[in-house]
Every structure is written in C-alpha cells, then in structure tokens.
Amino acid sequence: MDEPADPPDTRFGRWVRLDGAEPEGVPFTIDGEPAEGRNGDTLLTAILTVRPDLGPLPPDRRVRAGFCLIGLCQDCWVRLEDGRRVRACTTPLEPGMAIRLETSDRAW
Amino acid sequence: MVKSDPLVVVVGAGPAGMAAARTLVEGGLRPLVLDKQPAPGGRMWQQPAGSRQPCGLPGHDAETAERARKEFLDLAERIDWYPGTTVVDATRGRLWAMGPGGEVDETSWDALLVAAGALDRVVPLPGWTLPGVYTLGGAQTALKALGCAVGRRVGFLGTGPLLWLAAAQHLVAGVEVAVVADTSRWTGAMRALPDLLADRARLALGLRCLRMLRGAGVPIRRGIRAAAIEGGENVTGIALATRRGPRRFACDAVAIGVGLVPQTQLLDLLDAPFDLDAESGVWLPRADRAGRTPVEKVFVAGDGARPLGAAAAALSGERAALAILEDIGRPFDRDRAARLERDLERHVRFARGLARAFPFPAGLEAGIASDTVVCRCEGVAAGAITAAVRAFGCHEVNAVKALTRCGMGRCQGRLCGLAAARIAAVTAGVALAEAGRLRAQAPIEPLPARVRRTAPDAVA
What we know:
Chain A is mostly beta strands. Chain A has one helix and eight strands.
C-alpha cells in the first residue's frame, strides 16, 4: 500500500470544474430536482458535476458515468422528460432541460 | 462552381478534414464537409466549450489549433459545411447522414475522403467498467474542452505518449495525479531513441512531461504486468503487479488507454480492405502514401487512416485532397504532393519509435481473467468467449460475436473488438490474423427513434 486509502466523496458530483471562467448558469432538472449547469456544458458535464453517475443501464443494470466522452462508446444515453433519448456527451445542455435518470434503466 | 463539378465529400472536420477542405477549395472545388462535432477542429484541435479559455497545457498547441479552425471557418462561404452531422451509412456513390435535429439526409458523392479520427484503444481490466474510469482521450477532453476534471485524484494506467501527456496536463491543471502506471519499460524507449529523434519537438515534449511528473513527486511505475481497478459503486484505487511486487494507489478516477484505433466503420461499409499491423494488432485500412484506398474514389486521411498525431493528420489530409484532384482530372501540384509525402515519412518514423518505446501490452490482453468484462455494452466476460471458442471450434471474431453477443451492442465493438479477437485467437491457438476483425453494420451509430427522412439530396 503506497498511499492511504482516501474514499472518494462523489455525493455532490463526480467531476470537478476547473475554472470559474464560466459564470453564466444554465438551469435544468434531474428527476424533477433543480440543478445548475454552465454555458457550454454538455448534458454529461452538467449531470456529472452535480451527480456521481447516470444511474443503472442495461444489460447488467450497472451504474455508469460515461467513458469515452467523444460519442463513440455509447455508454451515456439518458432519457429526457419529453421522451427523447439522447447521448449525454454529445448533447449540448439547454436551459430548462428535464433529465430523467431514475428511468434511464427503462430506456432500452 | 459549374454544375458539372464533381462532388467531393469529406467526412470529419479535424486536422485532416480541415486541411483537405482547404486544398480542395484551392483546387477549384466546393467540397461537402460533414462533421459530427458542432465546431471544427476534431478532437485534437477541439474548441473549448462556451467561453472557457485554453489553459496552456503542455502539448496542447492552442494557437495552432485556433489558427487551423479560423482558416477553416474563413472557408465557410466556399464549402458546404454541415456541423453536428453524423454519417451513418454509405454505399458506392451515396451516403446518409443524420443532422443535429435528428433528420437523415442523403447525398451522392463522386469522391469520398474519410477523415473520421481515432478512439483510444483499451485493454479490458478488472474494474474497467466502474463509474469513474475513462479513456485517456476522454479525461483529456474533459480537461481541454469541458473545463472539468473527471475526478479529484486521477490514476493513469496503460501505455503510450498520451498516458504521460494526459497525466502531465492534469498536473498542470491542478488535478492530483495518483500514479502513472505504464506497461512498457525504459529499455524500449532507449532502443526507440533513433526513430524518436525524427521529431525532436515531440520527443522534448515527452521528456518535459516526464520531468514535470517526477518533479511533482508523482509515483511512476513501469513494466506493469497486471492491473485491476478497485471499487464497488465507485473507483477507489488501482492495484498493480509490478516487478517489485504488488502496489496499490488510492484514487477516485482512472484514465486508461494503450494507443489509438482508427475509426474505419465507413470504409468497412464500402468494402475497403484492411491489413493487420502485426506489432500493434490493429487493422489498418489499406491505402497508398497519398491516402487512396483500393476502392475507387475512396480516400482516407488523418488518425482515421493511421494514428500519427494532429500535425501529420493535417499533412495527410492535404495529400489526400491532392490525390482527389489528380484522380478527377484536375490540375494539382506534383512537387507539393512529393513534399507532403516526405514530411509524412518523418511522422511515420517517429510513430515507429513510439511503437517500440510503448509496445502494445499483448500479454495483458491475452492473460485476461475469465470473469473480466470484455464487452461493456453487452456485459460479456472473457470466459464466455473462451467457452464459445472451445465449444464450437470457431475463432473468427464475427462468429464469436454471434455466439456470445460480444461486440453486438451499442458501440458495435469499437472498444472490445480487438480484445475479443485476441482472446479467441489465443484460446484456439491460431495467429491473431486468423480471428479477423469485427465488421461494421449500418447505421454505424445509434439512430434515435424520432429519426425522420428528408427529401433525397436535400444535403447536396
């Protein structure tokens, strides 16, 4: 053991924003709960800076949080309240978007 | 433009596609450029999102990238550029693409240049499907374009120049680097030195990254024989088998990668042939030095042809555009073409050096544990592949896919195809080439159910 175990605290978001250069907030909701992203965010950025993951996905209902971030691994599809299914890493966040993670396991 | 001008379609607006578009315009054509990204630059020269500023990361030449993007945008009046557009199917002379609104359009083409870029290659490891594990390129994209780090303390695992570059970039961005664990050894780098001298600037960059990481006291482990990513619901650490015994490093995110794989699905649909690069185990599209594939009027350039980096991609895009001009009977500068090929040769030599310095860890891939997931889309473990190969006596990877569902999921085997072929070949005791390569299927990316078709030729 080279380093002391330091359990990660991902309760409030897996990703960390690196700069404060993006002051403009973009409101959206996750499962009805209000959240705020930043101008220029992808859906994946917006979700993972406030949540630890995208919830469980088929086939194994494994909890996921994206992987390639460039639209190729297809491991970040989420459902919107309006029924659309979108790839979170290539979809720009728009004000008022309503994301449904609770039901993302029914998306397939 | 006169109506009889041939229609050249360029797929991708990264370094290769942008250079090709410019060269085609210079040659008097009006190319149609289809790009998946909302902004030009591809992944290597990607524009930071929103008003985020490029933050002076090592190896990220923001100025070159911005200049190339600006040059391309200045062409906008003289090309037909469709950003946010994903090509999903192609046949000889036609292709289909989905626009940002979910509409699928169809266009004809007289010549097609595929400049689709590359994806990180990964070796399946225990725990690689945990949330918090990303590709090296993904972690880099978060940093460079999204203004985020994928975790608070990131471990880097794999091999190749990107491993060291991405780790150094995280360090500079103020992210804690838990470890850099490389399967390659220092001795390989020594032997590679003569070829690496072909590009002194990139060699110097690599050494600078190494110095920065060492200077910051980041643990560096080389010659990794086995590795596992630990965690339950989240990544908690990396466990390594080193020559000095087991080691463990705590972290909340891991970036993995062992090189790049060209994105060749479109070429596959067009029946372009591929050759196995024996050293890396990657299938590369067959093409001449100008980027001509054996399929008439189909060309390939950039990292999507052979991963050589952004600078080489721009050169090869320009070279392929000259070949297109030549093949459709337009005047082109023969000396310029020869000069580009000479310049590219230097990048090929450097890449040979990199392959020697950071050899693909075939042993790690071949020695995969039976319960390690290979196909993350379908949740297929290595044991299912070995069992199918033994039970049915077949080792061809498309047959293995049919038997196990490995490679049958959403990503179409982009991430698992090479590993599945290796496991099948090793199990059957045949050469890797015998296992073949996973065939792409149209549509090459998932289409949403809301997709609708617009009138034919609406794009062109």
